[in-house]
Backbone:
């Protein structure tokens, strides 16, 4: 199994790296990658995942829950989606929030700058009419609020700095099974046919002004049960902010 990765004095597990990179769907992909890497599960030619052993093998609660669902072979993409929307994934998400690595995002308003412009003019007028300072402060506050906020905090982005795909599990965390690195499909690292990898829902390519480092377009399973008010913005991974679109596939 891959050991947790330390970046800037913040210890992150591969699942947490996946979540900060692209939301709950990517974290679920990472959990599955860890199980495959350890030989705990296998993938049949038809894309169905089954455990190699009847019990044990999961290191994290997300992995353990994923294994618990495999009472019979399940399609690769369905394993990812079910885990992304699980209670265990929401617990992981809450843990990241408590560590102030993520927060409830705010979408950026298209005309956020208008508040800033008007506030600046009002601030100049306040030089001769101090009573206008209250309105100036209110407009600057509205500008700050309407500018929006990314789901991943500054601390979360700092924790991701320097994280690289040193092994195939971390490569999945950063790029997803559908991603490509150095001209090679990430799925090839696990000898997975592309037809199997393609069962992982593709993430939403549509980005907003608020997207950026972190899960600006979250992975599969970014549905209302794991996003929304709990950590992604109302569409939920895009979650933009959690605002999700499709799967946690490649970048």
Residues:
């Amino acid at each position: 199994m891959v050991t947790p990765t330390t970046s800037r004095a913040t210890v992150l597990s591969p699942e947490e790296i996946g979540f900060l990179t692209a939301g709950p769907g990517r974290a679920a992909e990472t959990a599955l990658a860890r199980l495959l890497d350890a030989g705990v599960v296998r993938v049949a030619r038809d894309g169905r995942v089954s455990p190699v052993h009847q019990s044990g093998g999961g290191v994290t609660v997300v992995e353990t829950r994923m294994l618990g669902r495999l009472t019979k072979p399940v399609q690769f993409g369905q394993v990812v989606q079910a885990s992304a929307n699980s209670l265990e994934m929401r617990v992981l998400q809450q843990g990241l929030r408590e560590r102030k690595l993520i927060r409830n995002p705010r979408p950026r308003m298209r005309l956020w700058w208008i508040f800033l412009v008007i506030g600046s003019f009002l601030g100049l007028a306040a030089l001769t009419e101090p009573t206008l300072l209250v309105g100036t402060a209110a407009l600057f506050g509205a500008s700050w609020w309407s500018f929006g906020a990314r789901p991943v905090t500054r601390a979360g982005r700092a924790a991701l700095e320097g994280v690289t795909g040193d092994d195939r599990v971390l490569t999945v965390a950063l790029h997803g099974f559908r991603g490509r690195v150095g001209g090679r499909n990430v799925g090839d690292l696990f000898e997975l046919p592309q037809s199997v990898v393609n069962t992982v829902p593709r993430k939403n390519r549509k980005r907003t002004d608020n997207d950026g480092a972190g899960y600006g377009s979250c992975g599969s399973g970014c549905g209302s049960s794991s996003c929304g008010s709990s950590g992604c913005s109302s569409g939920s991974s895009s979650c933009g902010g959690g605002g999700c679109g499709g799967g946690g596939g490649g970048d």
About this structure: The CA atoms of residues 108 and 210 lie 6 Å apart. Residues 24-37 form the longest helix (14 residues). The beta strands are 5-7, 10-12, 41-43, 48-51, 74-75, 180-181, 184-185. Confidence is low (pLDDT under 50) at residues 205-214, 216-251.
